[in-house]
Design goal:
globular, 304 residues, 11 helices, alpha/beta, TIM Barrel
């Protein structure tokens, strides 16, 4: 079998995406935050293009905070995100989750409060996408911290992880917890939170690593240390599959559609991991044409 594939597409090309994949990630940019409203919703776009509203599995909100309507999870943006989603989706589009970005730095207690409020008042689960470079949400330990909190804090029941495979920490090739990165995570909490997290979070990381080292169920070897997919393997292994909602399956080297000519070089392991943990796979085709997208989907390794 192959894992279900979602295709990321802007609202103008929903019909294109529906014809190629098992579902759609409606990817919004800043012009859509201005054009979509109660009078022109994603439901309306589906009607115009004769697209089934249920095909839209997720909605990807644009990053950043400097535009007129900031839609990254940041101080002062919580209300904007909730209001936009309520006005822009329409009555027949019901995404399973919203993909959102986060600010580069944050305090954990305040960040938990923002995420919880958006899910509880906004009514949709969130999947938080990793940043492409150094931030509070880039290293495997950074991402795992949110996964850990989502397991521990009841108000974060509807918060999960989305990992872009081209945005992981590319220098991380050894399957081991980085002590410096672990300490950096602890430093973002107050003293009480550090005391609460230190031992149990470290054990969470160690358990994930050991499980990945000793997991015979995938039926495929992990990427070698020379493989471009190795940092993806390390990130997925340390974060653990239970809190990952989806991945953006981008080539780790080019940040484009994944190279399918050498699936044994890590891609098969990634797809097997997603299949085992029920992680959605989203392709972001960028400027690729219809033929190349269809060819890539058809050539993805069969797993399971």
């Amino acid at each position: 079998m192959t894992v279900p594939i979602l295709l990321s597409a802007s609202p103008e090309y929903l019909d294109h995406a529906e014809s190629l994949a098992d579902g759609i990630e409606a990817k919004l940019d800043w012009k859509h935050t201005e054009s979509l409203s109660r009078d022109n919703t994603l439901t309306d776009e589906c009607d115009v293009q004769d697209v089934h509203p249920e095909s839209i599995t997720s909605i990807h909100l644009p990053p950043g905070t400097s535009q007129p309507q900031g839609l990254s999870v940041a101080p002062g943006n919580v209300g904007d995100i909730i209001d936009f989603v309520h006005s822009a989706v329409g009555d027949r589009v019901h995404p399973t989750w919203l993909t959102v970005h986060t600010t580069r730095t944050f305090d954990y207690r305040e960040h938990v409060e923002r995420l919880a409020t958006i899910t509880q008042v906004g009514g949709y689960p969130l999947a938080i996408e990793n940043t492409p470079d150094a931030s509070c949400y880039h290293t495997p330990e950074d991402i795992a911290a949110l996964a850990f909190l989502a397991k521990q804090v009841p108000r974060l029941d509807d918060v999960s992880i989305l990992i872009d495979t081209a945005h992981v920490a590319m220098e991380r090739r050894a399957l081991t917890v980085d002590d410096r990165a672990f300490e950096s995570v602890l430093e973002r909490g107050d003293e009480q939170l550090r005391d609460q997290l230190s031992e149990v979070f470290q054990q969470f990381l160690r358990d994930n690593v050991e499980h990945s080292k000793n997991d015979p169920n995938l039926g495929v070897a992990p990427p070698t240390e020379e493989s471009p997919w190795r940092p993806v393997f390390v990130t997925l292994a340390i974060v653990g599959g239970s809190q990952i909602q989806a991945i953006h399956l981008n080539d780790p080297t080019s940040d484009g559609l994944p190279e399918t000519n050498h699936p044994a070089d890590g891609l098969r392991w990634v797809l097997s991991y997603c299949n085992k943990h029920d992680i959605a796979v989203v392709l972001e085709p960028g400027g690729a044409d219809r033929e190349l997208i269809a060819e890539t989907i058809s050539e993805l390794p069969i797993v399971g």
